[in-house]
Specification:
Two copies of one chain form a homodimer. The first copy, chain A, has 16 helices and 16 strands. Chain A has 547 residues and is an alpha+beta fold.
Chain lengths: 547, 547
C-alpha cells in the first residue's frame, strides 16, 4: 500500500484555473474549431459589437469589413465602425479580457451578452499567429484617436498592452472603433453569407466588404431609421430562483418587503406586492435583509403563484414584419412569394422573448434549373433554414438548435409542402426564423444554437405555422389558377367543334355560339373558385394552439 | 443628436463578469437545464470525482449513493467514497469555486478535466434551495474528519464557509469523502441508467445505491484489480500552437533550443531535436527566451514537418477488450452474442486518444416480445447507442456527438443489419463506444457530447467497423445454421420414404440406408460452410481505411 498516492500528494496539484486558460484549451467552445469557422468568428464578433454600439448610441451603423490574406493559412481581419467609440481606459479590457463588458449585468436585448466575443478573437490570434490585436478608438469628446496593440495574459485573464499611443491621424472619422486581428483561418463564402444575412436582419445598417481577392461588395440600407430602442427591464417575479432572490434581498435599499417587491421587479405594483406578501404569509413591512431561508422559500412560492402582469414588451426590439419583408425583397428580388409575421412576446424563466418568421418561396436560381426541379418534384431539395438570434445570423449547429427543432416539428404537408418524417420540408423555399430576447439561452459560448426550452420551441412553432398558412393560401391560389388554365385550355381545344355541331343542330351562327360558350365556362370557373373552402386548415391550427 | 448615448455613458456600464455569475446565468451550459437532468448531474459529478480520486490513489473504489426526497421538487443527494480524502485546506475550493482542480494543468486521462463539475452542483444547490453543500473529508494522516458547510460566492468565485469543524465521528471510514447537496430536481430512472453504465465502464468499482423510495441496488465489481494507471505525458510537437509554444519557450529552464525540445516534449530525442532545428533553420544552441515571433513561426513549422514518433500510449487507460466483454456479459446475461474490440491509440491536435467498441446482440427483454419483433423485422427499433468518454457514460445530446456521427456513418447493411439512410441501424442490439484521451474535447462544460474532430470520427468509425465484422460473422453463421437446419428438416421429411424406395430397389436394409444418407447430407452441409467467402467484406473495409 506504500505506493498509494495520498491526499497530500493531490493537494500539491490542486490549483486555480484561469478562465482564459480554460477557453484557450477549449477553443472549440468559443467557435474556433476549424479554420473556416475561426475566420468567420473574427468577422462576426467584431461586426456584432459594432452594430450593438452604434444602435445603442442612436447612430445609423456604417461598417467596413476587410479581409486580407497574409499567407496560406493566415489572414488579417479588420472591422471599422462609426459607433460612439470606447473610452481609452476601457479599450484594453474590452479587447483583452474574457468576461468583461456592458451587457451581462442588465436585462436588455443585445447581440452580445456575455463579454466573451471579441476578446476571444484576441486570444485566438495570439494562440495561432502571436500577432497582437490592434485597436483604434475615437470618442467624440476627445480630439485624438487612441491606439493600442494588445495580447491577453491567459494566466491572469487581463490585457497585456504591448504598445499604446494617442494619434492625430483620422482612422475612424469623428467617432468609432477599428480593430485589426491577424489569425489562422481559411477563407470561404460563409463570410459573405453571414454579411448578407446580417444585412437582412439589420436593414438599417450599411456594410462595405472587401474580400481577400479585392472584390468589394456593398450591403446597403433598406431602411433609413433605427428601430425603436429596446428598454432595460427589471427581473420578473415569475422567473425568480432562490439564490437570485436571496441576493436581491441582501443588496436592496428598500426598507420593507412591499417596497422591495415594487422597486426591484417589473410588473409588480402595490396591489401585486400586497398579494405576494399575503400568499407568502409574510408581513408587508418585513425587513428584506432579515428574511431567512424558510421565509425566502415562502416568498418565492408567493411570487410564483400571485397573479402578476406579463413582463413588459418594450424591452424587445424585433426586426418588424414590414421591415423583414422589405429586407427579404431586397435580397431575393426574383422570389415568387415573400411573407413575414411577428408574434406577440412570450416568456420563459421570467425572460420575455419574441419570434418572427419570414418565408421566401419560388427562387429562380441563376442557372435556370428551377423549372426542371418543379417538374421532378420528388427530388426537390430540403428548404433552407435561416436562423437569427437578436438579429445575429446563426450559421452553425443547425441540428442542435431549438429553432430547427420547432421547424421540423411543424406538419408542413398541411401547407402544401412535401415533408418526409420529422425532417425539414422540401421545396424551393427559404424559412427565416428570428428570436429576440433580453437573454437568449445559447447552447455554448460560441452562440451557434438556441437551447431547447419548451416555451421557445412552442412559440417558434406557432410563429412558423402563422407564416405557413400565408404560404398555403398563396400556393392553393397558384394551384387553382393552374387548374383554371388547364380547364380553359381543354375547352379551347374542343370549343370549335362543339360550336360547329351546335350550329348545325340549331342553325345559329357558330362564332356566336363559341363566344357564348366561352363566357359561360369562364363564369362557372369563377363561381367555383369562390366556394373553395379553407376552413379545414384553420380548424387544425386552432387545435394545435390549444395543445 | 443630443439624446445620443456617448462613449462615456457606455464606460460606466463596462465591468468584469465573474465566471460564477456567468455560469449561474447560463446554468444549462453546466447541464442544469431541466429538473431530471439536474438531479442526475449532481450524482454524476460526485461519482466521477470519487472514481477519479480512488483510481488515482490506487484504491479499489467503494461508493455509496443515496437520494432522499424532501418535497415535491427537492432532493438530497449524498455520495460517499473510500478515496484518499481531500486535505482540509483544499476542501472549500474543490467544492466551492469554479475552475479549481488538479486535472486541468496536466496531460493525464481522467474523468474530470475542467475543475467545474462538483462546484457547479454547489452553485446549483444555492441557486435553487439555498441549502449549503455539506462535505466530510478524512485523510489517512489525520485522526479527525474535517466537516464543512459551504456556499459559492458568485461575485468573487470563492467559497463562503458557513460552518466548519473537525469531528471524531466516523463518517467515511479510514479515508474518503462524503458530500451532501440539497437541490431542485425530478427523479427518473436515468440515475440508475447512469450507475449501470458506469459499472460497465468501471468494472473494478463497487457502487451501492439507495433510490428515493428506499430500494437498494448493488452494482458489484466484475474485476478485482484496478486498471494500469495512465501516465502523465508532455505535449507532443505535432499538435503545437504558436501561443502555447511561445509560453513554453518563455518558461523553460533549458538553456538551448535542442535541450528545450528534448526536455519539454514527448517523443523528441536528440535526433528529432536536431532535425527540428535544421528544418527550422535555427541554431541548436539558440536561447529559448530569445526567439522572436518569426523564429517561433519557423520553429513551429519545423516541429510539424519533422519526423517524430507518435505520442506515447501509456498515458491512456482503456477499459480493455476482455474487461469490457466481461462487464457486458455481467450486465446482459441473456444476450445472444457479445463482442468487443480495443483499437490502437491515434492522435488529434497532438493529444493521444483511443476508441473501444462493444456490441451486445439479441437481447431478450423481460416481456418476451423479442420473438415477435424478429418476426416483424420491418418494425424493428433503432439500436441503442451507449457512449462513454474516459469511462464516463454520456447520457444527453446524443445527436450532437462525434461518436454518434461515426456510428451513423458506418454502412451497417454490410454487417447484416437494416439501416435507413444515414441513421443508426435497426435491430435488437446495443452498441457501446468508448473514447479515452488525455483531453476529450467536449461540446460544452456539461460534457455530454464529443466535438466532431475529423480524426476522432474517422477512428471511431474504424473501431465500429472492426466490431461490426465480428457481429457479421456471427450473424452469417447464425443464418447458415438456420439454413442447415432447414435443409436437414427438409431431408428428414423425405428421408424415410427415400430410404424405403432405395431399400426396395436395392434389397438392402432401409434403416441402414437412412443412416448413411443422413451422414452424407451432414458432411455436404459442412463442406459448403467452409467455402463461405468473406473476402468481399474485408476488401471494402481496407478501401475505407485508405480514404
Amino acid at each position: 500500500m506504500s505506493e498509494r498516492k495520498k491526499a497530500e500528494d493531490f493537494a500539491k496539484e490542486q490549483k486555480e484555473i484561469s478562465v482564459s486558460e480554460f477557453f484557450e484549451k477549449n477553443k472549440h467552445l468559443l467557435g474556433f474549431d476549424n479554420p473556416t469557422k475561426s475566420l468567420l468568428m473574427a468577422v462576426k464578433e467584431a461586426v456584432d459589437n459594432s452594430l450593438d454600439a452604434s444602435e445603442e448610441a442612436g447612430i445609423l451603423p456604417d461598417i467596413t469589413v476587410k479581409i486580407k490574406q497574409v499567407d496560406d493559412n493566415t489572414y488579417i481581419v479588420s472591422v471599422a465602425d462609426n459607433g460612439p467609440g470606447i473610452v481609452k481606459e476601457n479599450v484594453p479590457r474590452v479587447f483583452g479580457k474574457l468576461l468583461y463588458g456592458s451587457k451581462f449585468h442588465r436585462l436588455l436585448q443585445g447581440r452580445g451578452q456575455q463579454g466573451i466575443g471579441i476578446s476571444s478573437v484576441t486570444l485566438y490570434a495570439q494562440l495561432t499567429t502571436g500577432v497582437p490585436t490592434k485597436v483604434w478608438s475615437k470618442v467624440e469628446s476627445k480630439k485624438k484617436t487612441y491606439y493600442c496593440e494588445l495580447h491577453l495574459n491567459t494566466a491572469k485573464n487581463e490585457p497585456d498592452i504591448i504598445k499604446e499611443d494617442e494619434i492625430e491621424k483620422d482612422v475612424v472619422g469623428e467617432h468609432g472603433v477599428k480593430v485589426e486581428m491577424e489569425i489562422h483561418g481559411r477563407y470561404r463564402k460563409t463570410v459573405e453569407d453571414y454579411l448578407k444575412q446580417t444585412s437582412v436582419s439589420n436593414p438599417f445598417a450599411k456594410i462595405a466588404y472587401t474580400a481577400p481577392d479585392g472584390t468589394k461588395t456593398i450591403f446597403p440600407r433598406s431602411v433609413n431609421e433605427l428601430p425603436k430602442p429596446p428598454k432595460r427591464m427589471k427581473p420578473h417575479p415569475h422567473g425568480m430562483e432562490f439564490g437570485i432572490l436571496q441576493r436581491l434581498l441582501q443588496n436592496t435599499s428598500s426598507r420593507t418587503l412591499q417596497s422591495f417587491l415594487t422597486n426591484e421587479f417589473s410588473s409588480v405594483g402595490q396591489q401585486s406586492a400586497k398579494e405576494i406578501c399575503k400568499l407568502a404569509k409574510l408581513p408587508e413591512d418585513s425587513k428584506p435583509q432579515e428574511l431567512d431561508r424558510a421565509a425566502i422559500d415562502k416568498l418565492i412560492k408567493g411570487m410564483q403563484t400571485a397573479k402578476v402582469q406579463r413582463p413588459p414588451t418594450d424591452c424587445l426590439s424585433p426586426i418588424g414584419s414590414a421591415e423583414l419583408e422589405k429586407s427579404l425583397k431586397k435580397e431575393y428580388p426574383n422570389a415568387e412569394f415573400i411573407t413575414s409575421i411577428t408574434r406577440d412576446p412570450e416568456v420563459y424563466r421570467g425572460f420575455p422573448f419574441l419570434v418572427e418568421v419570414g418565408i421566401v418561396y419560388g427562387l429562380s436560381d441563376e442557372s435556370g434549373t428551377k423549372k426542371k426541379k418543379e417538374d421532378d418534384e420528388k427530388k426537390e431539395d430540403t428548404i433552407e433554414l435561416i436562423r437569427f438570434a437578436n438579429r445575429v445570423p446563426l450559421l452553425y449547429q443547425q441540428s442542435a438548435c431549438a429553432l430547427t427543432e420547432a421547424a421540423k416539428d411543424v406538419d408542413w404537408r398541411r401547407y402544401n409542402l412535401s415533408q418526409s418524417g420529422n425532417n425539414l420540408p422540401s421545396g424551393p423555399m427559404k424559412l427565416v426564423v428570428h428570436i429576440c430576447s433580453v437573454w437568449v439561452p445559447f447552447m455554448s459560448e460560441s452562440k451557434e444554437a438556441v437551447a431547447a426550452y419548451p416555451e421557445i420551441i412552442k412559440e417558434t412553432k406557432l410563429a412558423i405555422q402563422d407564416a405557413g398558412r400565408k404560404l398555403s393560401s398563396y400556393l392553393s391560389g397558384k394551384r387553382r389558377a393552374g387548374e383554371q388554365k388547364r380547364r380553359m385550355q381543354m375547352f379551347d381545344r374542343y370549343a370549335g367543334e362543339v360550336s360547329d355541331a351546335i350550329a348545325i343542330l340549331t342553325g345559329k351562327n357558330d362564332k356566336d355560339i363559341e363566344k357564348k360558350l366561352k363566357a359561360l365556362v369562364e363564369s362557372r370557373v369563377h363561381i367555383k373558385e369562390e366556394f373553395v373552402d379553407e376552413s379545414t386548415d384553420t380548424k387544425d391550427v386552432k387545435k394545435e394552439e390549444k395543445k
